[in-house]
């Protein structure tokens, strides 16, 4: 009986740092950094492991992976991500025994045309990108036919399956986040 209690205590002491570390701001930062490294490396299959399970109830995992690969592996464009930086992680809070935390970060995406398009096409694309991301967030290097899009983003971190997972909250297109996040989390994101 005493042996059993000692073994249980040892297991708790050995495993609790792993569990506790995972549910810290440092754990969020480490998991988010891994997620962004996979995204920057265009390892989209690995990024799927960092998306919440509820997302796959809305869009099947294989369809989402296929859509990411099709849009970010466009043969007419070289797309790359760079300069990802976390600007803040808010305190972890629980809703229905599920840990959440809000995160803000910035990143840059370069879109370089493989074949140089004409000026009118570049201006058309620039206008479309400025409409979507804001004029101040889009720059064009005409010599290299490269657009750089800078963005500040809000992310909801969700602790599930023993890892932090992430979903972006876009104020212009909040529908996906609204389908999978509780109202209390959405309110915090809107107030952030």
Question: Any chance you could write out the topology, listing elements then pairs?
Answer:
Layout: H1 2-22, H2 25-40, H3 44-47, H4 53-58, H5 61-72, E1 77-89, E2 93-95, E3 98-113, H6 119-133, E4 138-141, E5 146-160, E6 163-169, H7 175-180, H8 183-191
Antiparallel strand pairs: 1-3, 2-3, 3-5, 4-5, 5-6
Average of the residue pLDDT scores: 86
Report the β-strand fraction as a percent range: 25-35%
Q: Any idea how many domains? A: 1
Secondary structure: helix percent: 40-55%
Low-confidence stretches: 3-21
What is the assigned CATH homologous superfamily? NTF2-like, domain 1
Q: Could you please describe the fold and organization of this structure?
A:
46% of the residues lie in helices and 30% in strands. The protein is built from 8 helices and 6 strands, in the order H-H-H-H-H-E-E-E-H-E-E-E-H-H. Strands 1, 2, 3, 4, 5 and 6 form a 6-stranded antiparallel β-sheet that branches. The longest helix is centred in the first third of the chain and has 21 residues, at 2-22.
Can you tag this structure with a few keywords?
Nuclear Transport Factor 2, Chain: A; 8 helices; six-stranded antiparallel beta sheet; alpha+beta; 192 residues; disordered N terminus
Short description:
The protein is built from 8 helices and 6 strands; from the N terminus they run αααααβββαβββαα. Strands 1, 2, 3, 4, 5 and 6 form a 6-stranded antiparallel sheet that branches. The chain is α+β, with helices and mostly antiparallel strands and 192 residues long.
């Amino acid at each position: 009986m005493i042996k059993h209690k000692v073994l249980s205590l040892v297991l708790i002491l050995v495993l609790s740092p792993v569990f506790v570390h995972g549910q810290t701001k440092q754990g969020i930062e480490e998991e988010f950094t891994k997620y962004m490294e996979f995204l920057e490396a265009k390892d989209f299959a690995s990024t799927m492991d960092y998306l919440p399970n509820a997302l796959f109830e809305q869009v099947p995992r294989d369809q989402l992976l296929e859509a990411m690969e099709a849009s970010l592996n466009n043969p007419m464009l070289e797309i790359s991500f760079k300069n990802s930086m976390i600007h803040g992680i808010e305190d972890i809070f629980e809703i229905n025994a599920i840990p959440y935390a809000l995160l803000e970060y910035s990143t840059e995406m370069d879109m370089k045309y493989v074949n140089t398009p004409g000026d009118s096409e570049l201006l058309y694309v620039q206008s479309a990108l400025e409409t979507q991301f804001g004029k101040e967030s889009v720059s064009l290097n005409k010599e290299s036919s490269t657009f750089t899009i800078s963005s500040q983003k809000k992310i909801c971190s969700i602790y599930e399956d023993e890892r932090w997972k992430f979903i972006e909250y876009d104020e212009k297109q909040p529908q996906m986040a609204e389908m999978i996040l509780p109202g209390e989390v959405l309110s915090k994101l809107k107030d952030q």
